[in-house]
Amino acid sequence: xxxxxIFGATGSIGQSTIDLIRRDLSSYDVVALTGGRNIARxxxxxxxxxxxxxxxxxxxxxxxxxxxxxxxxVEASAGQAALIEAAARPADWIMSAIVGVAGLxxxxxxxxxxxxxxxxxxxxxxxxxxxxxDTAKQYGARxxxxxxxxxxxxxxxxxxxxxxxxxxxxxxSGGAFRDWPLENLKTATLAQASAHPNWDMxxxxxxxxxxxxxxxLEVIETREYFGVEPxxxxxxxxxxxxxxxxxxxxxxxxxxxxxxxxxxxxxxxxLHWPERRDLPVARLDLAQIxxxxxxxxxxxxxxxxxxxxxxxxxxxxxxxxFNAAKERALDHFIAGDIGFTDMAEITARVLERVETQSGLxxxxxxxxxxxxxxxxxxxxxxxxxxQTIG
Length: 390
Ligand code: NDP
Hints:
Elements: E1 2-7, H1 12-22, E2 28-35, H2 39-49, E3 53-56, H3 62-69, E4 75-78, H4 80-88, E5 93-96, H5 104-111, E6 116-119, H6 122-139, E7 142-145, H7 148-156, E8 165-172, H8 190-193, H9 203-211, H10 213-226, E9 233-237, E10 243-249, E11 254-258, H11 264-272, H12 286-289, H13 303-314, H14 318-334, H15 342-357, H16 367-389
Parallel strand pairs: 1-2, 1-5, 2-3, 3-4, 5-6, 6-7, 8-9
Antiparallel strand pairs: 8-10, 10-11
């Protein structure tokens, strides 16, 4: 039996992971499930899967979790320290699907036990890629990509040498506003930004798809995970979301990965790796699909992409600044404080301010330094948001 834990079990990726586990429950021994505010879901899944432990990130939610688990034999705990303790519990495979930089510390702790970490939490790689990879190496752990594009590239590289790679192309649907007149973006509402044309995902990543902040993070994730140069990474708008990524080799071959837009493929690939097993995902009928479209992204519509290029060129801890600014700008958009296009203006201002005012950008990539610069960037984003509102 494979011992597994799922961080962010109550979210979109967590629930897709549980869907796969549930289909073959006798093969798995579930150690820990973690969640945030959705206590009913966390408790119900922990009881159904027979988990040893259920953890909520919020200490004030512990009484509710204890009550929901009463008599089940599932242990309950809460708070940041409890998340770290859960990550240290021995498991063969751990899903990292907390949203945001909050996933970094548990991910690092999981790697320290030399496990396989299936990484959906792209923000960890953006904020502290080198630290994650070095920690994995030091403890003999394995990091497997779960983002659909990165899983596709990973699969395209099986049996290949990364030095034979000329370029990596990741695709983007273009999100909810791909075909909107540019002048309408300023007044785009939360509901409009939360409707993805192809993928069914958590709200934050759906809005980040409309702004392409999600793709911007993925470009940085590609650089960090595969160790390629920024100039080797391309983004293509592909409205059908069926080609997830392409790997271009020195000999001119371009290998594409196609599949239905269903995260259970990438999750299942990481779960069963290095084997391939049956997965409950739709099979593509290309004759029926008939046509696939590709175009170059418009950098005026999607300024986050140019910002990601600047972040990679600058290096150091700029990834953590970018992610924190983006997370806070998104919080303000969700709260209704700022407009859709204000988000990219805020991240641009934070990148500039934190780089010039903080001496931290070139400091060592430790969890403490990443946490410190994350706080500075968040404060800076709040100031920028207040100026926007004012
Ligand atoms: P969701 O918002 O659906 O779920 C996030 C999970 O994290 C929930 O379990 C949530 O708990 C928990 N959580 C939220 N805040 C905290 C916190 N501060 N500390 C600990 N746990 C917290 O997100 P997704 O599943 O969409 O995304 C998860 C990760 O996977 C992200 O990094 C995203 O970029 C990445 N990803 C997602 C894809 C998708 O298809 N959804 C595709 C590729 C990557 P609760 O809900 O109980 O409050």
